[in-house]
Every structure is written in structure tokens, then in C-alpha cells.
Design goal:
Distance between the termini: 34 Å
Strand content: under 5%
Number of domains: 1
Order of helices and strands: HHHHHHHHHHHHHHHHHHH
Number of strands: 0
Largest sheet: none
Structural class: mainly alpha
Helix content: over 70%
Number of helices: 19
Length: 462
């Protein structure tokens, strides 16, 4: 049999995609488990603490969305440099992303107070606002590490060395769970800090994760002696400018998407305790599909960037279509599980909660899980096609599309709630329709093939 025509063994076929995607799926699963254990422990401590961690966590990721995505766009640079054989540029671009993260941290800390006013604007009660501000502040202490770690991780992602990220995230998962248990409940001689303890545990884990990447990056360059990691540490403003030119539009996509989604979450937070707690649980469970799909997306961006760096758009297309198939299978498994056995997932949140309170939340949460099962197929395809365009550098189109579409669903939710008395089911219906529409638009852009001629690296080295 001709292996080049075999779906599984051909270049950029099933095996190639799975080999790079599985470590990142596991990495994404670790991030999901970090969020899950945070909120599960906090649910045991206090349902309001769990909800506050969700609301403040959304604000945190929204606040760092632009610099985080810009730093993460280093993956595309590294992949295209690696694919074209220009290894000596890799250390330099990675360090520009790291410095970018450090420069951003003091700005975000200065904006702490005005950003947290959003909780007051959406009518959250005073006790909940205080919890949200506490969680946001302590998590913000890790923002520099979160951003710079994306650039450092890109050193390995762009080369296709996804196992490095997997091993680092597995270690950090264990560290975060241990720190959560100690700092939330005051175990092993640690103080009982509750919600603040969960946020501090997250910040510590983010810094440890970043430092591990940096150490491993120097170790690889010491052995390979071709990436110029040490020599690339100096600040290069023109290169940072080029990173920002491509990365900030990608960041705008993430920022607008996170901002509108956060507004969606904050509006539901104003509908009542049952609605906001059920939504928090539903999205925590949804993270088991969404975050690992982001892992597949990172692999797709890296592989597409590598193939375009080699001037092989045909293989880049093959990466995309193979990944769509895997993404739909993955989403189908979880969608089926959410429909058939929702109580298996919900029972994990039942400890230390009154039966009456939990019964009311779980009944609503089962309905919300049906919405998730419905849009998972579209969400998985959306993640793959977005990552394909990102791997080519087609970020300006993505930013414009997001700026047009993303505000529609919180606006529709607001109109339904304020003028027609509609509630949480209306909000989730609008969210589902938004995911379907966004997916359809990305498919059309992918089919146009405009992205196939795009590059982010210097033209003279292609």
C-alpha cells in the first residue's frame, strides 16, 4: 500500500495530527481540571465563593486577553521560521513575547480598581462583589507569568514538541490541586484563606509554569545550539512591532470574545443565585471540551504555520480537514455524555451543599448541558478553522468578524431580559445561535483560500 495515500499514515494525515494534538488535548485537560478543582473545592467551601471565582476569573482572562493572544501568536512565527529552516530567529521572537508579557503586568495592576467596578455595574450584591474583587486581585499577581508563559511555550509548540507543554501542565495541575487544598481549607499547617487561597494558588502555579518553560528552553538550546536563545534576549522593538501587528488583531478577537462572553455571564449573575450557580457549573463542565479543543487548535496553528513556511498549502488544508474530523468525534463523545448521564458530572458538586439548593441548581443545569451538547459540534469546527486562519496570519479578518458578530449575543440577551422579561433559557438560545453563525462565517473564509498565500515571517527568507 502506498503510505502517501493512506489517510492515517500520509504527511499531515491522521497520525501526524493526532501525534501533535494529543499532548495538547491532555494539556488542555489539565487546565480544565485546574478550573474544575478550584470551583469544586470552592463549592464545598461556599457556593457564592465558587460563583465569585467564575465571575472574577472571566474578568481576569478578559483583562489579559489581548497581551495573552499577542504573546501566544509567537507560535505562528516560530512555526514558520522552523518550517523555512530559519532557526536562528526563534530565540529572538520568543524573548520579545516574554518581554511583552512583563511590560503588560504593571499596567494591569494599575487598572485593578476600575476593572472591578464592572461587578457593581451589573448589580451584583455587595458581599459577592467583595469576593469577586478578592479573587481577581490575587489572581492578577500571576498575569505577567500567564502572558510570558504563552510566548515561552511557543518555543516548543512551533517546533511541534507538544509533549513539553503536556508534561509541564500535568506537573502544574498536581501543584495547583495541592495548593488549593492547603490554602482553601487550611490543611497541613497552612492558613484557611478560602477564596483568596484559591486565587493565590493559581498565581503561584502560573509563575512556576513560566519558570519551567524558560529553564527547558535554555536546556534545549544548549544541546541543539541553533536557536540563539541567550543571544535573542535583548529587546528588539521592530520585531515587537511586527509581533504586535499580527498578534494584537488576534488579541482583539480573544478580547472581544471574552468581553462579550463575560458580559453574558455577568447578566446571568443578575438573574439570581440559582441561575448564576447553574451556569457556573455548566460552563465548568463545558471546559472539559472547550479547553482541550483549544489544545487541538494550537497544534493546528503550529502545523499550518510549518507547512506554509515550506510553501505547502495543500498540506495545510489537509491538517485542517483531518483536525475537523477529530474535533467532531471528541465533541460528540462529550455531547452524548452530557445528554445521557448528566447526574454523573453534577454529583461532583453536591458535597457540603443542602439537598434542596442542589436539586434546584441541578435541574436547571441539566437543561443547560443540553444546549452545550447541541452547539459542541459547531464549537469544535469553529476552533479548528479559526486556528487554521491564525496559523497563516489571517488575524485582521478574524478581528473584524469578531468585532461585528460577538457583540450581538449580549445585546440580544439584554433586550430579551430588559424589554420582554425573558430569562436564562433565552440567553442560552442566543449563545447557541451565535456559535453556529460564527462557525459558518469561518468556514466561508477557509473555503476562499485567501489565507493560503499569507505569511508573517520576512518575505526574503520564504
Amino acid at each position: 500500500m502506498d503510505r502517501s495515500n493512506n489517510w492515517w499514515t500520509r504527511p499531515c494525515g491522521g497520525w501526524d495530527v493526532l501525534r501533535q494534538a494529543v499532548p495538547l488535548i491532555i494539556s488542555g485537560g489539565c487546565i480544565s481540571l485546574i478550573n474544575f478543582t478550584d470551583r469544586m473545592f470552592l463549592m464545598w467551601h461556599s457556593p457564592d465563593a465558587m460563583t465569585a471565582s467564575m465571575q472574577a476569573g472571566m474578568l481576569f482572562w478578559t483583562a489579559i486577553a489581548i497581551p495573552l493572544a499577542a504573546a501566544g501568536f509567537v507560535t505562528t512565527f516560530v512555526a514558520q521560521y522552523h518550517g523555512s529552516g530559519q532557526y536562528h530567529h526563534i530565540g529572538r521572537i520568543v524573548w520579545q513575547g516574554i518581554w511583552f508579557g512583563f511590560f503588560t503586568m504593571p499596567i494591569l495592576l494599575l487598572l485593578y480598581r476600575p476593572f472591578t467596578e464592572v461587578f457593581v455595574w451589573f448589580g451584583h450584591d455587595e458581599a459577592l462583589v467583595e469576593l469577586e474583587r478578592t479573587y481577581y486581585f490575587y489572581t492578577l499577581l500571576g498575569c505577567g507569568a500567564a502572558i510570558s508563559a504563552e510566548a515561552a511555550a511557543s518555543f516548543f509548540r512551533g517546533q511541534g514538541r507538544m509533549r513539553v507543554e503536556m508534561c509541564n501542565n500535568i506537573f502544574c495541575l498536581g501543584l495547583n490541586v495541592l495548593l488549593d487544598y492547603c490554602l482553601i481549607f487550611g490543611k497541613f499547617g497552612f492558613p484557611e484563606w478560602g477564596l483568596a487561597g484559591a486565587a493565590i494558588a493559581t498565581a503561584i502555579t502560573l509563575w512556576v509554569r513560566f519558570l519551567i518553560y524558560v529553564v527547558l528552553m535554555f536546556m534545549q538550546d544548549w544541546y541543539a545550539n541553533k536557536f540563539h536563545v541567550l543571544g535573542g534576549m535583548r529587546l528588539d522593538l521592530p520585531l515587537i512591532g511586527r509581533l504586535c501587528y499580527y498578534g494584537i488583531p488576534a488579541g482583539l478577537y480573544t478580547f472581544i470574545d471574552m468581553l462579550t462572553f463575560s458580559i453574558f455571564i455577568f447578566m446571568i449573575g443578575g438573574l439570581g443565585a440559582v441561575q448564576r450557580n447553574a451556569t457556573t457549573i455548566a460552563f465548568t463542565l463545558n471546559s472539559f471540551t472547550f479547553i482541550p479543543l483549544n489544545g487541538i487548535g494550537i497544534a493546528v496553528s503550529s502545523m499550518v504555520g510549518n507547512q506554509l513556511g515550506r510553501n505547502r498549502p495543500d498540506l495545510a488544508r489537509r491538517v485542517a480537514m483531518t483536525s475537523v474530523m477529530f474535533g467532531c468525534i471528541y465533541a460528540g463523545i462529550f455531547g452524548f455524555a452530557f445528554l445521557v448521564c448528566p447526574y454523573m458530572f453534577l454529583s461532583l458538586f453536591a458535597a457540603y451543599t443542602s439537598p434542596e439548593e442542589f436539586t434546584e441548581m441541578s435541574e436547571l443545569c441539566i437543561v443547560l448541558l443540553r444546549f452545550i451538547a447541541l452547539y459542541l459540534f459547531f464549537d469544535s469546527s469553529l476552533a479548528i478553522f479559526y486556528s487554521t486562519l491564525r496559523g497563516a496570519g489571517d488575524t485582521i479578518f478574524i478581528a473584524w468578524l469578531t468585532a461585528i458578530l460577538a457583540p450581538l449575543y449580549p445585546i440580544c440577551c439584554f433586550i430579551g431580559i430588559q424589554f420582554f422579561g425573558l430569562g436564562i433559557l433565552w440567553c442560552w438560545t442566543v449563545l447557541t445561535l451565535y456559535v453556529v453563525l460564527y462557525c459558518f462565517c469561518l468556514v466561508l473564509r477557509y473555503r476562499s483560500k485567501i489565507w493560503e498565500s499569507m505569511r508573517v515571517i520576512e518575505k526574503e527568507i520564504i
